[in-house]
Design a protein that fits this description.
- This protein has 237 residues and is mainly alpha-helical.
- It is built from seven helices and eight strands; from the N terminus they run ββαββαααββββααα.
- The protein has one domain: Aminoglycoside 3'-phosphotransferase, Chain: A, domain 2 (Alpha-Beta Complex).
- Strands 1-4-3 form a three-stranded antiparallel β-sheet. Strands 2-7-6 form a three-stranded antiparallel β-sheet, with helices on one face.
- The longest helix has 20 residues.
- The N and C termini lie far apart (45 Å).
- The relative contact order is 0.17.
């Protein structure tokens, strides 16, 4: 069960999913978002909450990065021709704000140590030349694996960005919170995307914690370490 203010959807995805499945999810998503926005309650929304079908499996992304990325690529290939949903323009939750900051669609404003961490990342934010499309912006803990079953993509968090940005967010999460090695960071054209993913996570964290620029314990070191790695990769381009 989820608070319907952050509307998301679930699916058991094919290794190469059929395009009709994500389109059906998007239609369900838009219907649900409209119900929440207008205060309607029906079989899917009650008291501001929504629930979806239970799916077996565990996220456990650590050690499955290649499989998780492959599922994400297949999912995004199926979404490639889906038009941009209007609901993206109406969202103002912390992750939507953070996404706009990451892509320079909104001016950054973080005080204190958070501001210093952000400034270090902004120095590394280079151009990205890749087409935008509908993506899932939070795949890391939202692909379920279960023996004998297809991977399930859950909690659809839609954004209109390059497909490889979704992978960059997974990489940022892996480096920050799952002990992944530096080889996952990649290089070349991946660097500007990873920088944006780190900005996305940093700004959302600051908004959610509301600490006036003071990051939670351990977070400054996490971001400093990964930023140093990215700076090294940027110098190798």
């Amino acid at each position: 069960m989820k608070n319907a203010d952050v509307t998301e959807s679930d699916s058991r995805a094919e290794p190469v999913p059929q395009q009709t499945q994500p389109i059906a999810q998007l239609r369900w998503f838009e219907h649900l978002e409209a119900d929440v926005e207008h205060g309607h309650e029906d079989g899917e929304v009650a008291g501001g909450w929504t629930a979806s079908e239970f799916l077996e499996g565990e996220p456990a992304p650590a050690g499955r990065w290649a499989s998780l990325m492959a599922v994400g690529r297949a999912f995004h290939e199926a979404l490639r021709e889906v038009p941009r949903p209007d609901l993206l323009d109406r969202r103002n939750h912390p992750w939507a704000v953070a996404d706009r900051v990451a892509w320079a669609d909104a001016a950054p404003s973080l005080p204190g140590e958070a501001g210093r961490a952000l400034a270090a990342l902004l120095e590394l934010r280079g151009p990205v030349e890749a087409p935008d499309q509908l993506i899932h912006g939070d795949l890391t803990g939202n692909v379920l694996f279960h023996p004998g079953q297809r991977p399930a993509v859950i909690d659809f968090s839609p954004y209109w960005r390059p497909a490889r940005y979704a992978e960059a967010i997974v990489t940022a999460d892996a480096l920050l919170y799952h002990g992944a090695g530096p080889e996952l960071a990649g290089g070349g054209e991946d660097v500007p995307l990873l920088v944006r993913a780190l900005i996305f996570r940093l700004v959302a964290l600051c908004i959610l914690t509301g600490r006036d620029g003071a990051l939670p314990e351990g977070e400054p070191a996490r971001f400093a370490g990964v930023t140093a790695l990215v700076r090294t990769r940027a110098g190798e381009r």
